[in-house]
């Protein structure tokens, strides 16, 4: 059986979850692909750091050229985080004819056109499923089985860390700073959690979703964005007294080509469908002109749910390669 080799950039929360997903479900993944799949090289900062998962000798490297310039590697999975050097590495990999899978919404939202153009120019795929809402397969749904729709609206809870913080503050009266630390320990938060709590991460995700659903790219800096860092216990208590729950809501509307969009905390009545989305769970509501209203729900952050999305995109790229040979 042919072996398709994957080079992974990053072996933190998501890289580890991706590796574990392949180890856990190798037999069924390889059956779907019709070839064996091997994560043969992984880029890290420090090859000597103790890891949760032990890899065979020679897999870890601190030299990115071992992956992006390696002719044996067909697919690059980028799970480093940050806009640079991640964007530069993805562009080099695409220009070297490799398929790229990524969970890095900051890089994709900042360099959307450049990355997709490089993929098209080199006749390879760029697969960003894990960038939006962790394990929820929203991007592949929009671009494949829902592709016959014109979308009018996207609305949702797109950040697991802030939803976890708001849920724990509301339901258990916990302190903002303590819950943020807990979200970091559970592998939900960004390396710099400012992106989570200030709404920047949700704006990055909304930018990617708008580009794919509406065919219109808006830079995340141009999305009016307010996070949850100023939400106090008094705000939470007032919302509770009013029969509401505060949620960080990302929303976009497309009214006859006129777009409106924002990320901001909203007090939702407790009987609103998004009010019962708790902890690291996300929910995404989309409205298409043929299908009508749809709601997607699942874990929006964490190593294994996100690893599932990264591995799903690797599986599809590997299948494309296996079928083309
Ligand atoms: N955590 C989550 O739930 C989700 C995260 N994402 C996205 O996935 C990506 C990864 O997140 P996460 O796994 O949490 O991040 P981590 O900080 O846990 O892991 C980052 C990994 O990348 C390596 N790394 C970072 N920069 C470099 C560099 N310049 N050169 C070499 N290695 C580098 C680190 O190496 P070392 O280990 O040696 O330090 C580490 O292994 C981010 O883009 C994030 O936004 C998307 C969805 C959910
Ligand atoms: N930090 C992000 C991780 C997933 O995208 C979040 O909390 O949602």
TrEMBL record:
InterPro entries to which the protein is assigned, alphabetical: Asp/hSer_DH_NAD-bd, HDH_cat, HDH_CS, HDH_short, NAD(P)-bd_dom_sf
Pathway linked to the protein: Amino-acid biosynthesis; L-threonine biosynthesis; L-threonine from L-aspartate: step 3/5; Amino-acid biosynthesis; L-methionine biosynthesis via de novo pathway; L-homoserine from L-aspartate: step 3/3
Keyword Hydrolase part of the UniProt annotation: no
Keywords assigned by UniProt, alphabetized: Amino-acid biosynthesis, Methionine biosynthesis, NADP, Oxidoreductase, Threonine biosynthesis
Segments forming domain Homoserine dehydrogenase catalytic: 137-315
Catalyzed reactions per annotation: L-homoserine + NADP(+) = L-aspartate 4-semialdehyde + NADPH + H(+)
Entry superkingdom: Bacteria
Entry EC no(s): 1.1.1.3
Residue span, Aspartate/homoserine dehydrogenase NAD-binding domain: 10-126
Pfam families: Homoserine_dh, NAD_binding_3
The keyword NADP is annotated on this UniProt entry: yes
The family this protein is said to belong to: Belongs to the homoserine dehydrogenase family.
PANTHER family tied to this protein: HOMOSERINE DEHYDROGENASE
Name the record gives this protein: Homoserine dehydrogenase
Organism: Gallibacter intestinalis
